[in-house]
Amino acid sequence: MKNKPLKNCFCLLILLLLALVSPVGAVVDSSCSIVLEPNAKYVYPGDTFTVTISIDPQSVEVYGLQYEVVFDPNIFEALSQSQGSFLSSDGQHTYMVPKTYPEKGVVLYAESRYGVKTGVSAPGVASTIQFKVNDTISSYGIKEILLDNVLIVDSNLLFTSFDSSTGTVVLMEPVVSDFTANVTEGETPLTVGFTDTSMNAVSWHWDFDSDGLVDSGVQNPEHTYTESGEHTVSLIVANELGTNDTSTKTITVYGVPVSDFTTSITESEAPLTVKFTDTSTNAVSWSWDFDGDGSVDSEVQNPEYTYNEPGEYIVSLTVANELGTIDTETEIITVKSQPVDEPPVINSVNLFPASTIPGTTIHVNVDAMDELEVIKVDAGDVSLVKKDGIWQGSITAPNELGDYSLSIIARDAVGNTAETSVPYHVVRVEGGASISVSPRFSRVSAGNDVSLTIKVKNTQNIDDIFNVRINTDGLPESYSANLAGFSWTENEVKLRAGEEKVFPLEVNVPAGAPRGFKLFRTNVDSETTSIYGTSVGYLLVS
Where is 125: in which H helix or E strand? Predict the structure, then answer.
């Protein structure tokens, strides 16, 4: 098959001559159809698309044809025109004239068979035209591409009637993703409101933390960031055809600063060098005040400082984040004086009993102090234990009678010592114990109180512990006092040799108590020996 393009619309002249030799007004009654496709095409500025002109002869044998495709040159540009295979589908030769008038917006196409008397009755493509949408246009919407000035000649060289269609192109505005944020940086928790400013969008997919997942499909969402860091926010928008566009912005979230630090040492003697280690979170600056005077002594993150004078120092670390929010933490450093080479002081030593019988346990209490610290006190061969500020312990009295001396040695933290000795005596016990009620005879009315005293005296030659009891043992029941009204009935007392002690006693006689004499007995017993004493008190109840 050979096709010969003609210049200067020669083919068009052939068709006109064909029309002239045809009877005047002769038109074939049967019709064919010629179609411009697509009938709807969605495009954007800068897109290219193809228009196809197809013909269906139906019952007509088409010998030649001519048509114009008309378009808006302000919107479209015809890039190229290509011959279809319709008229040469059976391998016959054709003449073809393609012509474009860009400034008018017209594409002309004319083609005719030659050398044969038959036409083509099978459907086919007459021609195709490639268009480009201009990059810059002034209006959008439905734009028509018209099929105009159509001439179709059959094999009898007669014009035939036809049905034609017009193509349409829907020129879409480009979808452009864009958005704003009411805040782009701040501290956790940071709530950000996003406002969509996209163009030609009908759907919105938000990814707030760049994890590739859709976090919201709302057009204008809100999101709260609880983790610090730089968060990339992306918005993917799409138009009615599903064409999409993406825009991104960065939200910077800063953590709230929390000040904290550790020290290599918190207490020791001057000169004291302390290393400070910052353990703060969300901090970008550090201000250290080592001595509590309100002045910044260092801005190093992990500084070192030497204290030369004794005292208590308040160390403060103030940290700030990128936004200037601050937090402060404090610690106390105690600087002590150098130890003074002074021995401890033994304020007092108490032995009880200091005068006793062989084999008795002697309790030792020592009050010792030092400018540093007393760390050890020995009573003879016994190490005492500190309790409630007093060094305490016990020894056993020798089995031999005699006068003895107990050595007391106190030691401080640097090895200084203080020493003293206290005497004690081991004797053969002599003497006893006495107890008395004063006044021995008292008058009291029923429903009233009476005040008495109980005097206990150690008449032994040893220190001793005594049990004092009030009872009615051995007394007739009718004469026995009601001990329920006595303020106490048992007591314990430590008495040195020859020492006495007086105990107050309050007695309440209940209302309605029987009148007459009421008796009570007082006893004193030694915990060390078998000696005891007794006395009787009398109450006349009226």
Answer: strand 124-133
